[in-house]
Write a structure and sequence with these properties.
This protein is of the alpha/beta class and 197 residues long. It has a single domain, classed as Alpha-Beta Barrel (TIM Barrel). Helices cover 40% and strands 16% of the residues. It is built from 7 helices and 7 strands, in the order ββαβαβααβααβαβ. The chain has a 7-stranded mixed sheet. Helix 1 packs parallel to helix 2 and helix 5 packs across helix 6. The chain is globular and about 45 Å long. Iron/sulfur cluster binds next to loops. Iron/sulfur cluster (SF4) binds next to loops.
Length: 197
Amino acid sequence: MSIVYRYGRNLYINMTNRCPCSCIFCIRDSTPRLGDADSLWLKEEPSVDEIMSELHYKCDLGVHEIVFCGYGEPTNRMDTLLEVASRIRSGLKKKVRLDTNGLGNLLNGRDIVPDLARVLDSISISLNAPDAESYKEITRCEFDAETAYNSLMGFIKECREKMDDVTVSIVGGYLSPAQEKRCASIAEELGVEFRIR
Ligand code: SF4
């Protein structure tokens, strides 16, 4: 069970397997491994101290940034995320990024962006689709289509207002060229970076 794993020049924190989505492209369905992780399926969710202990053990001068990612949605554990991110910035002096499905406001029942903006250097948000209907088809999320997509859009807009480095992404090969183009236009209108991953 890997809490922190290395992939390329970054360290990734895997602190929960809980996720409100079941994306049709999710690698959780095909492999337990990524980077140097043995298995990303957690027996139990790690504490702040357990995460920091692994980070201290694995972090070296070659690490570019530390990313909250993993085999679940990190904003399911906001208190832990905020504490670990603060300690990384103050102690390890590394840049901190969050990779998220952007549904954290729904998951927490409150606006989490101001808290995130205090501790993150950058955020990468899964846009996944250009409209609510195709979003639901791709993510198979537990929320209804309009609720999820509207919350995602609001989350992206607020991140753009409060953070400097915001990217939205889609996964290549699951949308038509026309849909991909619409996603790129949405990113441009919102004033955020766009990436096909
Ligand atoms: S949001 Fe991420 S972890 Fe959750 S199902 Fe989709 S790809 Fe997998």
